[in-house]
Amino acid sequence: MRQRDTRAFPSNRITVNRTDEESPDLVARCQKGDVEAFAELYARHSARIFSLAARMAGSPETGEDLLQEIFLQAYRKIGGFKGGSAIGTWLYRMALNHCLDFVRSRQAKMDKATATIDDDERPAALTARRDSPGERIDLERAMQLLPAGCREVFVLHDVEGYEHKEIAAMLGIAEGTSKSQVFKARMKLRALLT
């Protein structure tokens, strides 16, 4: 049986032993333009970054697009990596910043075009979808239905483990707003999942 080239199929994630993950040799090879080394770096870190991107974006399809943009940006900027942190930390921070920029950009557009979720008819539509035969709303799907502000704070706090103070600094919001958004997200998720 032939093995597929996983670089051509980014949805096929490779699990790599984490003990050799931060090889300085791998980083040096990437900085010299070694495409195979960068493919190995991608294989080692893409699953975690895809998970973040898909959750922040609210869909796996947009998450894949963001993943590709993030690794393209990493490829362009790897020459500037100084080694002050682990390469995985550097990639993750770059990914988080890229996702936050995406969400802010999308949110600014959405704020102009729509009202808040409390004012629209989504809850009735969700009830109809949940009650349809053979359809079950799970946590990932329910998270996609959260308003972007609630979803991004929920992902950063409950999924990624950031403190409210850190989230407030990242998003440029008050710490109380972060707490409020997480509370609203949890309440909406409970309503969607029951």
Architecture overview:
With 194 residues, the protein is mainly alpha-helical. It folds into 2 domains: 1-113, Rna Polymerase Sigma Factor, Chain: A (Orthogonal Bundle), CATH 1.10.1740.10; 115-194, Winged helix-like DNA-binding domain superfamily/Winged helix DNA-binding domain (Arc Repressor Mutant, subunit A), CATH 1.10.10. 68% of the residues lie in helices and 0% in strands. The chain is built from 9 helices and no strands. The protein is elongated and about 50 Å long.
Task: Explain briefly what this protein structure is.
With 194 residues, the protein is an all-alpha fold.
Notable traits:
194 residues, mainly alpha, Rna Polymerase Sigma Factor, Chain: A, 2 domains, 9 helices, 68% helix, disordered N terminus
The radius of gyration over CA amounts to 19 Å
Spans of at least 5 consecutive residues with low confidence = 1-20, 114-137
**SSE string, helices as H and strands as E:** HHHHHHHHH
Specify the helix fraction band.
55-70%
Overall pLDDT: 76
Which term fits the overall shape? Answer: elongated
CATH class of the largest domain: Mainly Alpha
The tally of beta strands, per DSSP, is: 0
Q: First CA to last CA: what distance?
A: 45 Å
